[in-house]
Design a protein that fits this description.
Blueprint lengths: L1 E7 L4 H10 L6 E7 L23 E2 L20 E12 L4 H12 L8 E6 L13 H4 L1
Antiparallel strand pairs: 1-4, 1-5, 2-4, 3-4
Helix pairs in contact: 1-2
Length: about 140
Amino acid sequence: MKEVMAIIRQAKVKETLAALADIGVTSVTVHSLNGRGRQGGNIMESVDPEMKTDVECVSKIYKFPTPSSMAGDSKLTKPVLWVPKSLLNLVVSEVPVKKVLETLIAVNRTGRCGDGKVFILPLTDAVRIRTGETGDEAII
């Protein structure tokens, strides 16, 4: 068993879920979140023309301060923005992890900054609360 965590663009969630269902992955948890990557939350139309740059879709750091934004001597030279993303969590046992990874990449790769990340973690056990089933039986 493996847990797959995929951070993707919000606009790609529907297409990703359909592609995962096509390969047999139907149990997925989706979270909405805000984050930033290597670009520090910069959103430039030349880098990502699909990303909205209005204040309604992006929270400026002074609205939701973080410990780094409150550092004593730190002077921000540009606003740091949180970029809206979606996090997909899924547990894989029947469908090969490689097939899931290939599907996630095929649907979400645009070649532009912000395509996302996929993390694959080992999963030692699972328990279905209702029945007490464990292991693979608990996730099927």
